[in-house]
Amino acid sequence: MTEFWLLIKYLLLGLVQGFTEPIPISSSGHLVILQELFGIEIEGLSFEILVNFGSLIAVLVIYWKDIIRLIRNGLNYMMTKDPDSKGDFQFILYLIIATIPTGILGLLFEDYISSKLSTVAVVGVTLLLTGLALWIIRNIRGRKNDGDLKVKDAIIVGLAQSVALIPGISRSGATIVAAMLVGMKAETALRFSFLLYIPVSLGITMLSIGDILGDENINALAIPYVLAFAASIIATYFSLKWFMNIMAHGNLKYFSFYCFIVGILVILFL
Questions:
Q1: Could you list the pLDDT tens digit for every one of the 270 residues in the chain?
Q2: d(Cα 157, Cα 199) in Å, to the nearest integer?
Q3: CA dihedral in degrees (108, 114, 119, 124; nearest 10)?
Q4: Is the dihedral angle over the CA atoms 123, 39, 113, 207 positive or is it negative?
Q5: What angle do helix axes 27-38 and 120-136 make, rounded to 10 degrees?
Q6: Which residue of 3, 42, 161, 218 is most buried, as measured by CB atoms within 10 A?
Q7: CA nearest to 129, candidates 177, 82, 60
Q8: How many CB atoms lie within 10 A of CB 47?
Q9: Sign of the dihedral through C-alpha 49, 29, 233, 195
């Protein structure tokens, strides 16, 4: 029975992380809430790394055509200076620029955030802030396409992503809010947000390989980890597809309502 509960626990955590990763309600915040609500304690340091890598795989599957196009045109521009490829080359540069703030701040404050800010009280407040940000941009309709972006746009979105290191601040929410505030169209904001997720998630995974290999629980929890990993891939894939449809119809206000409700409930009862 204990082993069965262990499998159910990690399946649930994988599904929750995967489903909440793409949508603007904070996957890290929901994992904190879930652990507090059900008294779940995650054994091993590798769990969050693996389920985030599962989400990364789902994002790669959905955006693989964009990724191939960017790589092909980026390389073509570097070799031939073809003006038709310049826009994609610049888009790659902006993704790199936007990644830098998160990388620096993550390395500097990761331990502090993990030890001091991963609490339900913090998550309750930050969910309210996420809801407020989503409410502010609910009716914004930007005009900037991929080729209209500037360096300052990339820096602003990158700084917003850095704020999402705090549990309860949604990464997708923060980057999409920032992208729409600087004038991006919803489709461009969504694409930039999730293509930006790729280098960040990949970097975290690469830097954490040592932690995974050194995790004393990795053998005992191999099956639960694999189950959660697979669940996160599937849940992220369908959640992101669903969110892309919501973004196309401009219904972000519903996520704002959700964050307000959950944030208030967490503050009052957990």
A1: 477 787 888 898 899 999 999 999 988 888 888 888 877 776 555 778 889 899 999 999 999 999 999 999 999 999 888 888 898 999 999 999 999 988 888 777 777 776 677 788 899 999 999 999 999 988 888 888 888 889 999 999 999 999 888 888 999 999 999 999 999 998 999 999 999 999 988 887 887 777 666 666 667 777 888 899 999 999 999 999 999 999 888 788 899 999 999 999 999 987
A2: 14
A3: 50
A4: negative
A5: 140
A6: 161
A7: 177
A8: 23
A9: negative
Exposed (0-12), middle (13-18) or buried (19+): which is 24, by Cβ within 10 Å?
Answer: buried
Chain position carrying tokens 């746009």: 153
d(CA 99, CA 121): 28
- Tokens 């262990």 locate to 6
Query: What would the two tokens of residue 115 be?
Result: 């030890």
Give the separation between CA 262 and CA 61, rounded to whole angstroms: 31
